[in-house]
């Protein structure tokens, strides 16, 4: 299982695997595609949720996306204190709140209502589709008035491609 996780990290960004902190966007196809999608989202002044199973990539994603959106976003992962979670969610839900929210799949995938988002991006795939679906469902709560688009990133010809085939 450890090797599979490491291969998945390489698919996200080589720096995640190397743990070197040099998250250059040009070194990752996923960062490039995320930039393209999020530029369109920012241009439309819409909001997005970005899920990853890996906590360690949440901060680099947030830094990267802040440049695209021209303002900071927010992060939630298993290390986020429970007392701060409601405040963070309320901030995102407000109209003038952050334009994007980076969440770890496990911490952000249950118990939250995130209807301010009109885009859900699964930056990496999880083995269990129910976990991904539950995360996506954070936007499909009572009060959702927008159409929601779900994006799932897969590196072709890699372990992610094999996971996708299994999930299908």
Low-confidence spans: none
Taking all residues together, what is the mean pLDDT? 90
Number of strands: 5
Rg from alpha-carbon coordinates: 15 Å
What coarse outline follows from CA principal-axis ratios?
Answer: globular
Category from helices, strands and their pairing = alpha/beta
Order of helices and strands: HHHEHEHEHEHEH
Strand line-up across the major sheet = 2-3-1-4-5
Into which percentage range does the β-strand content fall?
5-15%
Helix count, DSSP H or I runs of 4 or more residues:
8
Distance between termini?
21 Å
What does this structure look like?
The chain has 168 residues and is α/β, with parallel strands linked by helices. The chain is built from eight helices and five strands, in the order αααβαβαβαβαβα. The chain has a five-stranded parallel β-sheet with strand order 2-3-1-4-5, with helices on both faces. Strand 4 (119-122), helix 7 and strand 5 (149-152) form a beta-alpha-beta unit. Helix 3 (29-43) crosses helix 4. 36% of the residues are buried. The model has no long low-confidence stretch (mean pLDDT 90).
């Amino acid at each position: 299982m450890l090797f599979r996780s490491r291969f998945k990290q390489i698919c996200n960004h080589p720096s995640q695997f190397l743990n070197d902190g040099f998250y250059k966007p040009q070194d990752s196809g996923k960062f490039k595609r995320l930039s393209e999608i999020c530029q369109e989202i920012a241009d439309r002044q819409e909001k997005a949720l970005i899920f990853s199973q890996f906590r360690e990539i949440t901060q680099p994603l947030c830094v990267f996306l802040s440049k695209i959106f021209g303002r900071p976003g927010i992060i939630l992962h298993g290390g986020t204190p429970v007392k701060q979670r409601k405040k963070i969610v309320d901030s995102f839900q407000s109209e003038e709140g952050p334009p994007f929210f980076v969440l770890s799949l496990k911490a952000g995938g249950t118990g939250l209502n995130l209807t301010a988002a009109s885009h859900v991006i699964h930056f990496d795939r999880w083995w269990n589709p129910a976990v991904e679906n539950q995360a996506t469902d954070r936007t499909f709560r009572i009060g959702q008035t927008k159409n929601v688009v779900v994006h799932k990133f897969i590196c072709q010809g890699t372990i992610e491609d094999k996971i996708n085939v299994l999930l299908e």
